Amino acid sequence: MQENQPLWQPTEDGIENSPIHTFMQRCDADFGLGLKGFEDLHAWSIADRENFWSALWDFCGVKGERGADILVHGDRMLEARFFPGARLNFAENLLSGSGQGDAIIFRGEDKVEDRWSWDRLRALVSQLQQGFRVLGIGEGDRVAAMMPNMPETIAAMLAATSIGAIWSSCSPDFGEQGVLDRFGQIEPKLFIACDAYWYNGKLQDVKSKVASVAKSLGVPTLVVHYAGNAQDVARETAGGVTLSEFIAPHEPKPIDFVQLPFAHPAYILFSSGTTGVPKCIVHSAGGTLLQHLKEHRLHCGLQPGDKLFYFTTCGWMMWNWLASGLASGATLCLFDGSPFAPDGNVLFDYAAKEKFAIFGTSAKYIDAVRKSGLTPRVSHDLSSLRLITSTGSPLSPEGFTFVYEGIKEDVQLASISGGTDIVSCFVLGNPLQPVWRGEIQGAGIGLAVDVWNDEGKPVRREKGELVCTKAFPSMPVMFWNDPDGTKYRAAYFERFDNVWCHGDFAEWTEHGGLIIHGRSDATLNPGGVRIGTAEIYNQVEQMEEVAEALCIGQDWDDDVRVILFVRLASGVALGEDLIKAIKTRIRVGASPRHVPAKIIAVADIPRTKSGKIVELAVREVVHGRPVKNQEALANPEALKLFAGLDELKV
């Protein structure tokens, strides 16, 4: 592949048949815009937000009353209100289908296969809604779930939001304290948990954890059968009842969808919590729905009947994003468990059999497949696959290359970035423009995304802070237990007045795309020069000897020095030759300033439950400071590997 050529280009037919092209033509006709392409559409969408978001509501067929006003106080980020007079129900919009067609397909490692029709999904939502009302659950009450990514979880979320309750979830691999650090803050009226789950071919028992969490929360517990004995778990849990017992008194009937304001809360999501108790981020039903519809229909080209897959757990915002695919009439393809059990073909087997249209995953997964030596392009029929999306961390240029050489040649690859803070994306793909190696295609429509320097000035071809300069619908409603908004303002608005500062270190490219160089708070500053950690990972993690890396800045001699930790491939030792090779690779591929002062081999690298490495927690350990909330980590024991290292004392 030539470096100066795009990896993928949309065809004329692909453009003309895309929902975003149809939307653009409709806006052109309605508003007399003369739009020539995506750049014009994006510019109009942020210059005329009222007409844009109103047109999107109509185009996506949102069920509800729109109201007279589209946006009030639009010039003030914290006071802006979208569709203040609207009334809608989140679950009603997601339950867009009926009949015997597939709404959900489920795989639980290689242990479970299941298919849910729209009618089956509606029936369970109806029964759960009736059961919730018997418990007195209503508008504004919280329902908290520690569940696998399975159909019953989707149904419970829909039942909760159908009556105006607020849904919150985490995955069953969270430790007891990690669950309580989250759900204890929001005081749910109901706790939902599974009886057991599979991971990496092993049965994971959660009986004692469910009982202990339920006791601490002091609320009824609904136990869902998956991989264990639900009756046993319910019997040993105070206030426990199995799902089958819970719904038995209730026959399916038409669902009562409570109409609520656009800004009524639907979800509480949690920050990673690796430097303290997780922040509880509250997202609105209307803002989440409209933003997800925009991303699915326009940016992803999602059509009714398409198979939509994302490799995620219920503790990551991509689960919420995936669930909203129902609103476009898509079939959700759920997976729970390890993507390498029994081997790395699992997800590609699933994709080929069910004919995924969209395959969503993480940059770490793509890199793991690359290093495993698999070539799905050869071994699997992926002819139905038109879009691969990647998030969780920046996708390296080599990751881009591997997708086209190892997975599929004629596929749109969309690296996407946003997060829990907005339950969606700031920057992502679009089907109208080419894909360039190592670059995110561009900003989301309706989002005034830019890159600013420390002086608050926009910069091009220069690294800076990713910002959004105008209000948008999926901004959080609030943080829970933050009555005066102090925590909310501190999280996004302290850096620049009236401007959302997202905390990503980013750069515009010559093609109008973006590169994310890592989190701003993890940015390295040797000699006062800002360096993104992703720039180092892009070099070192391409070396076959290195399985994974983590980089921090260590305070040293009135400056900061770059420390690189590497987890090496099996059978590899860190000798002088390899250290030299790593430094040379970084010097040539990045710059001399990126070369670490120290390279240290470690047996493991700590990461969150959603697979993100935790640079800040390691930095705290290296500097002898406590890491307050280790329950947020998938492997907290790995932090001990970084404490008191002799190599960092000289």
In words, what does this structure look like?
It contains 21 helices and 32 strands. The strands form nine sheets. Strands 6-5-18-17-19-20-21 form a seven-stranded mixed β-sheet, sandwiched between helices. Helix 3 crosses helix 4, helix 6 packs across helix 7 and helix 8 runs parallel beside helix 9. It is globular, with a radius of gyration of 24 Å. 54% of the residues are buried.
Distance between the termini: 44 Å
Total number of helical segments? Answer: 21
Count of DSSP E strands? 32
In the sheet with the most strands, the strands line up as 6-5-18-17-19-20-21
Global morphology: globular
How much of the sequence lies in strands comes to 15-25%
Helix content bin: 25-40%
Mean pLDDT: 94
Based on secondary structure, the structural category is: alpha/beta
Q: What does the radius of gyration come to?
A: 24 Å
Poorly predicted regions are: none
Largest sheet: 7 strands, mixed
List keywords for this structure.
single chain; 650 residues; alpha/beta; seven-stranded mixed beta sheet; five-stranded parallel beta sheet; 32 strands; 31% helix
What's the quick description here?
The chain has 650 residues and is of the alpha/beta class. Helix content is 31%, strand content 23%.
List the helices and strands and how they pair.
Layout: H1 12-16, H2 19-31, H3 38-47, H4 49-59, E1 64-65, E2 71-72, E3 81-82, E4 87-88, H5 90-94, E5 102-108, E6 112-117, H6 118-134, E7 142-146, H7 151-162, E8 166-170, H8 176-186, E9 190-194, E10 196-199, E11 202-205, H9 207-217, E12 221-224, H10 230-235, E13 240-242, H11 243-247, E14 260-261, E15 265-270, E16 280-284, H12 285-299, E17 307-310, H13 317-323, E18 331-336, H14 346-354, E19 358-362, H15 363-372, H16 376-379, E20 387-391, H17 397-407, E21 412-415, E22 417-419, E23 424-428, E24 442-443, E25 449-452, E26 464-468, E27 478-479, H18 486-492, E28 500-508, E29 514-519, H19 533-540, E30 546-556, E31 559-568, H20 576-589, E32 598-601, H21 615-622
Parallel strand pairs: 5-18, 7-8, 7-9, 9-12, 12-13, 17-18, 17-19, 19-20, 20-21, 31-32
Antiparallel strand pairs: 1-4, 2-3, 4-14, 5-6, 10-11, 15-16, 16-27, 22-23, 23-24, 25-26, 26-28, 28-29, 30-31
Helix pairs in contact: 3-4, 6-7, 8-9, 15-17
